[in-house]
Design a protein that fits this description.
The protein has 140 residues and is of the alpha/beta class. It has 4 helices and 4 strands, in the order E-H-E-H-H-E-E-H. Strands 2-1-3-4 form a 4-stranded parallel sheet, with helices on one face. Helix 1 packs across helix 4.
Length: 140
């Protein structure tokens, strides 16, 4: 069994923390349970999570309606093992010893749920791959 100190920590970052990073964090939380510490944040957080993103995630059985966009802090980056940027540009602080990944997905802002679904599905696949890397199958 993994203790909190043994758990890898992943931070998903996008500009508004209202779409891509929220979906990625929700998928990793859903798939990993307590095996991974998951955070998400934005360099310029929106007031609310994109309603089309909430609906698309609900279709996948994941409720993110209560999530709120959070501001990116230096501490969040410093305390994460893996930082996944999703369109935050140069605003994400870089610390030695961290693993940085840049995932490029279309921004769901202003899109309807039909346009968000393929973004959601692509993010889910990428999150599943990341989970297999940081917590190999069979590890409890």
């Amino acid at each position: 069994m993994t203790t909190p100190a043994d758990r890898p920590s992943v931070l998903f970052v996008c500009v508004h923390n209202a779409g891509r990073s929220q979906m990625a964090a929700a998928f990793l939380t859903h798939l990993a349970g307590d095996r991974v510490q998951v955070r998400s944040a934005g360099s310029a957080p929106a007031d609310t999570v994109n309603p089309a993103v909430v609906e698309a995630m609900s279709e996948s059985g994941i409720d993110i309606a209560a999530e709120v966009p959070k501001v990116l802090t230096t501490d969040a980056v410093r305390s994460s093992d893996v930082v996944v940027t999703m369109g935050c540009g140069d605003s994400c602080p870089v610390f030695p010893g961290k693993r940085y990944l840049d995932w490029r997905f279309p921004d769901p802002a202003g899109q309807g749920v039909a346009s968000v679904r393929p973004i959601r599905d692509a993010i889910e696949q990428r999150v599943r791959g990341l989970l297999d890397e940081i917590v190999p199958p069979g590890r409890v």
